[in-house]
Write a structure and sequence with these properties.
This protein is α/β, with parallel strands linked by helices and 153 residues long. The protein is built from 5 helices and 5 strands; from the N terminus they run H-E-H-E-E-H-E-H-E-H. Strand 4, helix 4 and strand 5 form a beta-alpha-beta unit.
């Protein structure tokens, strides 16, 4: 169980309105999430998002169609090919925003992940409030595009 005090509720997290009814999935490429990941997971849940956490070996069985947001936590020693495969699979099965969090963000990895279908690539050490605000913006844009009238009709 995650420590409830790992991410205090602040005015910033209270304003994340699109988290309240969102359903997200967190995929770990590592066996166990490290402290930065646990703090982010706790913060997302405290902001109101329902968040499922799976190890990457569950990839073929994950119902991506049900999620509003997909987070892929890359391992420190992650092979680029495995990361790209996971992003492509998630993109094929879902139109939800895909965020890759990595211990270190290198240009080749960012370019490959974005080309494979990721919407954002960030260092896992990024400020939690910045990550949550970014993800809230992605959810807001997704909601707006789903509710927009069809053009040309």
């Amino acid at each position: 169980m995650l420590e409830p005090t790992a991410f205090p509720l602040t005015p910033t997290t209270a304003l994340l309105s699109h988290f309240r009814h969102a359903y997200g999935v967190w995929l770990r490429m590592t066996g166990e999430s490290r402290q930065p990941a646990r703090a982010i997971i706790s913060g997302v849940r405290r902001a109101g998002m329902t968040l499922d956490v799976y190890a990457l070996n569950y990839l073929p069985r994950i119902p991506f169609w049900r999620y509003d947001l997909i987070v892929l936590e890359a391992a420190p020693s992650a092979q680029l090919a495995g990361l790209i495969k996971a992003v492509k699979r998630a993109r094929f099965l879902s139109g939800a925003p895909i965020i890759v969090l990595a211990p270190t963000v290198e240009q080749d990895m960012v370019v490959a992940a974005l080309r494979a279908g990721a919407d954002a690539v960030s260092p896992i050490e990024t400020s939690k409030s910045v990550l949550l605000a970014h993800w809230d913006a992605l959810l807001r844009r997704r909601e707006a595009s789903q509710n927009a009238p069809l053009r040309g009709m």
